[in-house]
Amino acid sequence: MNIKKLVSFVSLSILFILFFNPVQAAAKPYVIPENAYVGFEYSIFVDGKLIVLREKSYTIDKIKNPDLYVPLKLLSKLKDVKINYNAPITVSSDHGTFKIDSTNSVLYENNTYLSLANFQKLTGYEAKSDFESQSLFLWSGSEGEKESKRLMQQLDKVTYDLKSFMGKKVYIYEGEKIGWVKELSNYSSSSTIVKAVIQLNNGTIYEELILNGTPDSFIDYWHYETIGYNYTGKYYWADKNYLPSSNPLGHLEKVYFTSVKLKGKNLIIKAKRSSGANQTFKLSFYDDYTSTIQNGFYTVNPKTTYPGWSSNIWNKIIQQKISIGMNTQQARLSWGSPERINSYNSNNLRIEQWVYGRTYLYFYNGKLESWTD
After folding, report:
1. Does 62 share its domain with 125?
2. Each residue of 257-294: pLDDT tens digit?
3. Number of other CB atoms surrounding residue 171 within 10 Å
4. pLDDT digits (tens, 9 = 90+) for 84-109
5. Which domain holds residue 65?
6. Does residue 126 share a domain with residue 40?
7. DSSP code, position 239
8. Which of 270, 299, 328 is the last residue before a domain boundary?
9. Model's pTM, two decimal places?
10. pLDDT of res. 230
């Protein structure tokens, strides 16, 4: 055999080994197809302790083994479980040594995942998932079971809306801290007050009491991250009836938000004014940052909503003035909603009294007839 034939034979042999070796092919995890449905993200608790990983756990459907899937890296957090990452990847536990391949794993976003069923088979851990809180509880041994069931029993008594915070990353307004909710429980057996135990980035514990079913000291971190996406790059029209008097914008002034960021309990907004000038201002809130923008700005130009009104009426509205003959929509745009409305009806007449502090507006059949200061 000459040298050329020998080189060709060796090359073909190498290609055959690389591409047709069944052992190597089996070692590869199953890549989920594009039409697979990756659904809810689950938080993981092991023996009652929250496990924070960069890789998340998901329900995955429309694949050959639909299930709740956990990242392979989770196994490195478990006692008495070892991973050998040399090809082929193997997992060793008290239940034996297992090879990770396409029969028991999937590949998603370049990370290897195990179905919950295979995870239990490989590790011997018990598991219970809670759909309402999207939490997965795993345990081994009696102590781990006891702590896991304590968390689950506490969670059963918490309202549905608050359960969604369990195990989730949150942004704490005071001090702009980041943490994860590791425990939720009713403050007392007869109370609707809920206590949230939050583990901060530095390992310290922060506790917060939640009243009326809505946290006023923290929000889901996802909302914190998406504030800018939700509000920037859009036009708004200022409503000075709800914005603070110190705000520099004029009533119904058109502005374009270039940046919206959360800093504590303040929204820091950068905007381009109708004059072309750049303006930065701060809007404070109590417990719901969304209401600050929803109440303080129109998302549609009011002039396009009421195209038939005269320029004289619009000038008065922009100056936040009222005049005899205005209808109720015009008065509301000019002064905002009244504190209360008192009404009287007869066969041919409807009288409304709109109360703004010590000022009273009187409408007869929807037209402003008079007011008193």
Report:
1. yes
2. 999 999 999 999 999 999 999 999 999 998 889 999 99
3. 19
4. 988 889 999 998 999 999 888 999 99
5. 30-137
6. yes
7. -
8. 299
9. 0.81
10. 95
